[in-house]
Design brief:
The protein is an alpha/beta fold. The protein contains ten helices and nine strands. Helices cover 34% and strands 19% of the residues.
Length: 264
């Protein structure tokens, strides 16, 4: 029985359903020894099933001191494997050097998008991420072009990972119950090691375009290239950002780059 009090300011909603916890642990699909980092283990409902798997070499990272104390008491197997710190500010090499590791967790709603931005920064070390997050965010990550849910993180994540929406989880299996549904996703690294474009510019183009998502690319990218640039007559500039696939954003980045350089 858990005696850790869920803290609102940390976005804590502790999973109480053992069946759901086991199902999340199984989404990792591990067939060989694997290093795994669990983010925000809370009271260890998911942790216990990860520890049962002999192929998993587990470390956990937790920002809540009360949870850390509880985990240390309840799970002797986690001795020296609990890191009392914030994943968002963690120096990954401090935990894993240059080794690869998978990530799993019941991610706090208030930082779930930031967790995925951090994962993208370390994509060459993270082949797989499985986790539960707010249903709306899960749908956004898995969304395809043409949908309203398709946005900045959809494109950035899908450039390097395949995203699977696995199952929906109701509020009733949490303490306290959140006001929204949750969902479990699996994100697996694809074959793209590097995009065939300037990756820094690629990010800038995506963020600039989606910040004015109702406009055509011609209008939303005015801050990057001038409207007098000859390339803006290309048909791709007639589209809105949500209509463009990852590959089209790569094409667009390559089209734009020479004209940015010529302006400086």
């Amino acid at each position: 029985m858990s005696y850790v009090k869920p803290k609102k300011h940390l976005g804590q909603h502790f999973l109480t359903d053992q069946h759901v916890a086991r199902s999340i642990a199984e989404t990792l699909r591990i067939s060989e020894p694997t290093k795994v980092l669990e983010i925000g283990p809370g009271t260890g409902v998911l942790t216990q099933y990860l520890l049962e798997n002999e192929l998993i070499d587990l470390k956990v990272i937790e920002i809540d001191g009360e949870s850390v104390e509880y985990l240390q008491k309840e799970f002797s197997a986690l001795h020296k494997r609990i890191f009392f710190q914030d994943f968002l500010t963690t120096d990954i090499p401090q935990l894993y050097g240059s080794e690869t590791f998978s990530v799993i967790g019941n991610f706090p709603y208030n930082i779930s998008s930031q967790i995925f931005f951090k994962i993208l920064e370390n994509k060459h070390q993270i082949p797989c991420v499985c986790g539960m997050l707010q249903k709306e965010v899960a749908e956004r990550l898995a969304s395809k072009p043409g949908k309203k849910t398709y946005g900045i993180l959809s494109v950035l994540l899908q450039a390097y990972y395949d995203v699977e929406y696995l199952f929906t989880v109701p509020p009733t299996v949490f303490n306290p119950p959140p006001k929204v549904n949750s969902a479990v996703i699996r994100v697996t690294r694809n074959a793209t090691q590097q995009l065939e474009c300037n990756e820094t510019l690629f990010k800038t183009v995506i963020k600039t375009a989606f910040n004015q998502r109702r406009k055509t690319m011609r209008n939303s990218l005015k801050g990057i290239i001038t409207v007098s640039s000859p390339i803006v007559t290309e048909s791709i500039f007639d589209k809105r950002p949500e209509q463009l696939s990852v590959n089209e954003f790569v094409t667009l980045t390559n089209l734009i780059e020479p004209y940015i350089q010529s302006q400086h």
